[in-house]
């Protein structure tokens, strides 16, 4: 994912086989021009025979120095952000792959911060060799734009969660294996980032800018932040400021029809 990497060691062969198809496209270095390949976060994954804490319905996160810990009724995992290694235990469940993805979303959101990157709630599309991030809350139109991109034979990186990373003064966008409704055609990328756009379905089609002074708030609302040690949160704030100053944030109101891609030139 633009050089931000995980290395998973499975102690359960069945779980490994069940997720291998989803993660296959993301195997390999996945770096960017000019380098940027980072040491992977190494995680061992096991399935436990004992039950988890049934009272933990939502993901509970805590930090102890550089070690981050996440627990839910179906999982318990932690990793050291300095050493770059950790472990995940999945408790008995009918869907261990869902438990694994929940922890990996958390882990990548934290590990990315160490490498000048961030995860955003957004679709990623490549047009003319340039990458576009379309961010927004649930229902804003990320999956709709993703499906429209496929009808135009554009490259879809993701319809749900994109990774943005700055390497040697240049911003990149990459897909992630954390998809939403559209899974069959996503590509890992990466691609040079041309624009970050806050989207909203509307009766008209137009491109603009957020209200002055609201850019940082609007961007931060769409960044995945489950919890991270203070130094990494400082990295996030620094990266967000750089993103706004170097790429900027635009808005796009659109009708769900193929003509929306005619607005691309106004985004670059």
Helices and strands in order, then pairings?
Elements: E1 6-10, H1 13-23, E2 41-47, E3 60-64, E4 67-72, E5 75-80, E6 85-90, H2 96-111, E7 117-127, E8 130-135, H3 142-151, E9 155-158, E10 161-167, E11 170-174, E12 191-201, E13 206-208, H4 215-220, H5 230-246, E14 250-254, H6 264-267
Which characteristics define this entry?
268 residues; alpha+beta; Rossmann fold; six-stranded mixed beta sheet; five-stranded mixed barrel
Would you mind describing this structure in some detail?
With 268 residues, the protein is α+β, with helices and mostly antiparallel strands. The protein folds into 2 domains: 6-115, no CATH class; 117-267, Rossmann fold, CATH 3.40.50. Helices cover 24% and strands 32% of the residues. A 6-stranded mixed β-sheet has the order 1-2-6-5-4-3. Strands 7-8-12-11-10 form a 5-stranded mixed beta barrel.
Strand order of the largest sheet: 1-2-6-5-4-3
Shape: globular
When the domains are counted, the total is 2
Radius of gyration: 18 Å
- Proportion of β residues? 25-35%
Model regions low in confidence, pLDDT < 50 over at least 5 residues = none
| Architecture per CATH nomenclature, i.e. the level-2 architecture of the largest domain | 3-Layer(aba) Sandwich
Individual helix count: 6
Q: Share of helix among residues?
A: 10-25%
Q: Give the tally of β-strands.
A: 14
Distance between the termini: 23 Å
Q: Identify the CATH class of the largest domain.
A: Alpha Beta
CATH topology of the largest domain: Rossmann fold
Given helix and strand content, the structural type is alpha+beta
User: Element order, helices and strands?
Assistant: EHEEEEEHEEHEEEEEHHEH
Biggest beta sheet summary: 6 strands, mixed
Output mean pLDDT: 88
